[in-house]
Amino acid sequence: MLTIKLNNMKFHSYIGVYAEEKKIGQNIEIDLACQMQSDQSRYTDDLTDTVSYGAIYRIIEKTVADSRVDLVERLGQQIFDDIRAVYDAEIVAMSLNIRKLAVPVNGIFDSVEITLTDTGKRGADQ
């Protein structure tokens, strides 16, 4: 089994519940792990036998740039949907973490983080 991970990607986003979050934006960090259907690339050394992590990065980059959602949970689902639109047959499961580094909460902490998992199934069993 092959898992491709993209760790600590950094983006400036315009997501959030409050108008200021959508106006000035904020920095977020994303980690993504994709469990692949095949690990054939370890035998062939051919990019067409795997999923390009560069292509995955560009999908995430575009999704974050285009999104104006309120919740990081919804952004995570948009990322999953956009990746699955291209690589549904190749990816068995995905997991991602999204960290908001500056949140409108009166307290001292580094970030707020959510974790989502996508197994390709829809509904209550996901």
From TrEMBL:
The enzyme's E.C. designation: 4.1.2.25
Keyword Transferase: no
InterPro entries assigned to the protein according to its UniProt record, in alphabetical order: Dihydroneopterin_aldolase, FolB_dom, GTP-CH-I_C/QueF
One matching Pfam family: FolB
Any GO molecular function: dihydroneopterin aldolase activity
Domain Dihydroneopterin aldolase/epimerase, chain residue ranges per copy: 4-118
Family: Belongs to the DHNA family.
Function, in words: Catalyzes the conversion of 7,8-dihydroneopterin to 6-hydroxymethyl-7,8-dihydropterin.
Protein name: 7,8-dihydroneopterin aldolase
